[in-house]
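Appendix B. Extra example for self-study. Work through it before the problem class; the solution is given directly after the inputs so you can check yourself.
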Amino acid sequence: MYQTNYHRASSVQEAVEMMSNVPEGKYLAGGMTLIPTMKQRLAAPSDLVDLRHITEMRGIMVDGRSVRIGAATTHEEVATSVEIRAVCPALCGLASHIGDPHVRHMGTIGGSIANNDPAADYPAAVLALDATIVTDRREITADDFFTGLFETALEDGEIITAIRFDAPATAAYQKFANPASRYAMTGVFVARRDNGEVRLAVTGAGSNGVFRHRGLEAALAANWSPDAVANVTVDASDLLSDLHASAAYRANLVRVMAKRAVAAA
Amino acid sequence: MGVEGIGARVARKEDKRFLTGKGRYTDDMTVPGMKYAVFVRSPHAHARITGLEKTAAAAMPGVIDVLDGQQLLADGIGNLICGWMIHSRDGSPMKMGAWRPLANKTVRYVGDAVAIVVADSVAAARDAAEAVVVDYEPLPVVTDPVKALEAGQPQIHPEAPGNLIFDWELGDAAAADQAIAGAAHVTEMKIFNNRLSPNPMEPRSTLGIYDPGDDHYTCYTTSQNPHLARLVMSAFYNVAPENKLRVVAPDVGGGFGSKIYIYPEEIVCLWASKRTGVPVKWTSDRTEAFLTDAHGRDHVSTVKMAFDGNSRITALKVDTIANLGAYMSLFSSAVPTYLYATLLSGQYDIPAIHANVRTVYTNTAPVDAYRGAGRPEATYLLERTMETAARELGISPAELRRINFIRSFPHQTPVIMNYDAGDYDASLNAAMAAADWDGFAARKAEAEQRGMKRGIGMSCYIEACGIAPSAAVGSLGAGVGLWESAEVRVNAVGTIEVMTGSHSHGQGHETTFAQLVADRLGVPIDSVNIVHGDTDKVQMGMGTYGSRSGAVGMSAIVKALDKVEAKAKKIAAHLMEADENDVVVENGELKVAGTDRSVPWSQVALAAYTAHNLPAGMEPGLKEGAFYDPANFTFPAGCYICEVEVDPETGQTKIVQFVAADDFGNIINPMIVEGQVHGGLAQGIGQALLEGVHYDPESGQLLTASYMDYAMPRADDLPSFNVSTSNTPCPNNPLGIKGCGEAGAIGSPPALINAITDAIGHNTLTMPATPQKVWAVANAAN
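Solution. Structure tokens for the complete assembly:
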């Protein structure tokens, strides 16, 4: 790791000010990606501004079916939230299978979404739940937020403060883990609203990061059953291909995980 | 057996310090003035070095010096060598290319060391290493061993035309060909044995200390054989003469073979300590370990197995290409030859065997022994072929094996080995009973109801351990003898120190060796200390690999104990005014048999050192040494059965049960043996299901350089193992021990692949059987 300067912010405003005063700063949330990357000398921020101690960014609020999760909330807090479990247990299940216990106690939902790792779990949930990403300066819909591999709509210095969504009627997440890293090699989050609308998002498979599969959504909106995915074509040409999984294999996994998610929902 | 003697499940003495963080590993060693090293490594798989600019790096804060390969050469430090001479079938010696500890002209794999930076901190050394500017002229690359032998491929070493190191054979080609021509059935297969990274928990580390006052060097290092390291560094690398070089291998956190060899870093840190005047410590990070630890396996073979009309094997013919990487590591030549082809008879009576092995250079990390070393490759080839033959012949895999088992001992195979004892039916029957083999069809039908494909597979392995009779291995090309040494030092108060040339890096010698002493002398194991791993404390010894510490290392202790006991009896007889032939050792006392006269062990020890009242002419003291050279290899064998369920939609394999029925001869500590089997099975299952080193074939970059891409087995990948042992004692060593360290890794891969191919009904599957591969093969079959 190259030398860096550490700053601990106690409010969102202070964090923004700190960041504006340093040359090559990075916000630090759980640090579960940033710190290992720095240790490998692949990232060298001059300064780190720690967001984990900002009270207004922490905590879970559920009001009816409306859910608000502070961006600095850890995966463990989401996984074990009784309030979230009552309205959207699929999200608790997803959080409980991120990384390992160490990662879940350090990593945060805001950090995961801001990083937008193409194999991370949360982006699939945020997209399928039609969530709103609240920042220090605006609100961004999930459809507009994820723009590519490790790319988001966030501007320089912009901080995610919370994630908001209305809990769907039913939802589920199914992940097929990479045998080595245990990240999602393909993960599918499906959510169905009372009005029959279905959103289905895929992580770990897209060559441009997390994406919604409109064909599967349409098939499931028409027929909410695991069998509905059988005749949907998943185009492999937009999917990642690597040592562990070819695009064709991932295309198969998208269908299988979608089927299993619907069955589990 | 007492509660602490041979056969007892004694809790490991060493675990207290390991489990409480009190182990002392090389990286824990700190000496005054010590500085830290980082190596500058080649980012290219093959390149000519055209320039090296280090002035700016050397001037950076905290940097003591930056040393390169030209300086190392100028100081007369020698090439790394392979210590086992193999001759090609045309009689020519193997073609060993030069391996410089710091490359000065050409780099041949990604990670090849080019320079060393010594600085006040690891961070400062790393900064400076990044500032060393090496000019490379990239050369074409070849990573695939089959391709490396083809015409027009990059030439890696001038000494080895066409990248061929040797073209060796064993056995009778004409007899095998004749039997194949006249066979009722011939099973033919192409077999790949995947390349593995050893992944010990503790990465390699070394601390070089030069003392100008005495012109003396000390090397702390992660070694399985510190005396061998000292010998090789003195005799071949010109680091220092043996009497001026102390090598210490303190607690070592796993080796699996990869810490047998002397690597460039040990040599360079010792040399750098003299050049810089400061002690120099280097510890590998995990990516360096993936890049530079000697890898294992990497064979491509074709096999023909011939049968007569009664399903008896009449011949086996094997053609193997073994990838040795960019340089010949210390024992690399022995692994695909005398540790491999000599085991191709397996548990079967095969009249004619011929093996042809070609070893090749490629632009990849050196390949050498890894848990099992040659024997897993032989077993995988043989047991995949047996299973395939059974399917082709339409008889059960168990029956085909039974038809061909060796049942009379000693048995001379056509490939050197002389099996001394075994009962292969016993382990096969035990495994089949434990696995409820007969109930499989019902379980398969039940799984089918759930949409799962269930399969079962077996593997009957044999291995050669207790390496090895010195004269025999010498005649086959070994540069060293493979005996072992021991010294038993009884202190004046009766406590005991055993200096052993074996080295424990997880095996539990501090417990099992103490159990042997406790068993022989009736003293508590807490009064016995096992001392190993330091050339200043322990007489010359040969170290630990090839499951040799029990069969060879403990046999040396037995010989030394014989001498100690004989002298103690003389002293006791003198003290009790009895005939020494009437004295027996029992429960920590020396007794006159059949009487109530006795003296405690401690009193005999004290008498030996006070020397006030010893038999006339006897030297004072009670300390004896012995060297033991085994008469033969030992031959552990067993039967493994694996049952799997494959999810046809994803290709995911779940191991439903794994049964291991082993014959290790006599057992010192069943708990430690079970631990060895569990660990071996985990590594074998890792090879079969998860692990594989991958290089980019164009660039030679290592694609699996971290745990993000190299899949290690985790607890949830493994079932709860069902292990048992039967026992035909080894007749060739005093304890009847065969060895157990490698069996799990040797026997398990073919059992697992046989099970998966049985489940999916398609036989073309290579290791590791990842979900993607199984899915692709299963779907191609439909």
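Self-check: The CA atoms of residues 26 and 257 of chain B lie 18 Å apart. If your reasoning did not lead you there, revisit section 3.
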